[in-house]
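Researcher: Here's a chain I'd like modeled. Treat it as a single chain, no partners, no ligands.
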Amino acid sequence: MSYGRPSRRRSTLLAAPAAAAALALTLTACGSDGKTGGGGDTHFVTGSGGISTVAKGERVDAPELDGESLDGTQLDLADYKGKVVVLNAWGSWCGPCRLEAKHFAKVAGETAGQGVQFLGINTRDPQRGPAISFEKDWNVTYPSFYDPAGKLMLRFPKGTLNLQTIPSTLVIDRDGKIAARSLAALDATKLHTMIDPLIAER
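Model: Modeled as a single isolated chain. Structure tokens:
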């Protein structure tokens, strides 16, 4: 048996699973530089489905987040303290964002009466028009910050959000602390997995 250079056919067969894995990652998030937002002192523990959570006593404060919404009005995260806030970073150019949008619209409606507020951070859209059309197409009625350069995302603690990983979602507890995170598109079931334990907290 030879242990020299593998044949071209064998190299091709070995490369196929790697190519499939790369495609799967591409479909999960619109952009990634290979980082997952790890590091820092955020105390995330990753569970099933790629959802990371933080124990109540170890959570860090969400940053001050204020600016213009997509419709040009002022928006301030601090106005929602006392509620569970679901903060979703998205772009109209992002395929997985389109896939998850109907789930976000659905769960936002289901949980509005339970003290939950959904907010978006629209990023890397150089013009507002496509983002506003995106919201209309998917019946997204909650407001989004307009953050084309990602400056608001950079306010978050290191290891929380990554501008190159869109969509991303954070859940902020009633005390204004970061409690859960996902760096991939979510469906309604996974959203409830993130939100429901925080609704139950007192």
